[in-house]
Specification:
With 491 residues, the chain is α+β, with helices and mostly antiparallel strands. It is 58% helix and 10% strand. A four-stranded antiparallel sheet has the order 1-2-3-4, with no helix packed on it. It starts with 6 loop residues before the first helix and ends in a 21-residue tail after the last helix.
Amino acid sequence: MMPPMNPRVLISFSLLLLVGGCSVGPDYRPPQPTTPASFVEAPASTQPAVSDATLASWWEVFGDPGLSALVDRAIRSNLDLRTAAARVIEARSVYLGSRSGLFPSFDAVGGYRHDRSSDNADGNSGNAMISRDPDRHDWSVGFDASWEIDLFGGVRRSIEAADADFSAAVEDHRDVLVTLLADVARNYILLRGAQRQLEIVQKNLETQLQTLELTRSRFRAGLTSDLDVARAEAQAMTTRAQIPPLEDQIRQSIRRLGVLCGESPEALADELSPVAEIPRSTLDISAGVPSEMLRRRPDIRRAERRLAAETARIGVAVSDLFPKFSITGDFGLVSRDLKNLLERDSIGWSIGPTLRWQILNFGRVQSGIRAQEARAEQALRQYEQTVLLSLEETENALGSYRREQARRESLASAVESSRRAVELADQLYRQGLTAFQDVLDAQRRLLEVESQFVTSDQTVSTNLVAVYKALGGGWETKLSQVDRGPLILIP
């Protein structure tokens, strides 16, 4: 039985524990940035703001099964997303480990020591009358315990910082997912756009080659000059020269999608090579209010959590100005003879408070506090910058999407007019009522306008993807919950 501690010591430490509820350093308050009442570039619409449910799986508004399948594969296998998930696990482990600082620590100890003393150490060499054993054997087993009382809240502030770091890692994981979804959709749209461009070029090349053959026949019949043949051949070869870059763009898009899905660059070649339509959506976007964007975007939420972590670390730094109180003790069995180790007389123990105070290091501690305050200031400015960049990105995406829609409508009319012009020019040329140059000009103009229309069609869809990314859509779905319970992430 261990004797009770001195009552005065117990009372003193009880008071310390009661006072230990305070935490030094500033208490964190989330910033409240000023945002505009609405987006300037948001199209005038009577539609309600895009819902969280739509944002959660925004790629489905395109109604393209191929795109949806690629999104699912990328979420399951993308390596950047897996890396971000590992960072979440790391941050959560650090957070859980930091909580152990609130509780006592126990270390089991045990050992054996053999000492032999010198016969000449006490000047007794050669004295046969003195007999003693120069060998000493010590056996020991027991445990050590220590507990640093968090009197001024330094440990609690470190736990608060680790908790905020964990939340920031979760938001970073979500931000990686948002970016991944947008990259998959954008590259898929670029692929389908390049395939459509290639079809248009090949179709126009076929028409131009027919025109070239007709011109050669007319030249052999003496109905036209060699100049018309040269012009027709030059235009056909110029159109043919557009094919290799488009084929290269198609291959690059397929490879990019393969890597985004966590597979080899050529893994999706057979699956994606067949031509398909450019994904389109007629959904009327109403972005809602900017304050909702702040609630939803993972990069803003991550910046806010990093600010919270750096603010908590100010308290950790300030706690070094104050003394550290600890209770240490040990209990064990020590004996010179192993067979007596478990006897009552082998019991030994000690317990007592300790105090550590960096009295002579206040200059260094103050410098550490100022450095941490500067880090918190940087985190605040980074948060404010993230908000401003998010507003800028959203305004640009909304404006580009709206204006490109208007451009596509004009180009659609231009395509119809250009096709009619080619037909009329060809008819008049065959009848000898117009110059061959008019036919070439009409064909060249049709190719240009059709290419511009496909590019615009593609751009409208990629701009819509940019809108959804700017609004922070996509992380709410397909991603298992990451909370304070067991961590479950995409395998």
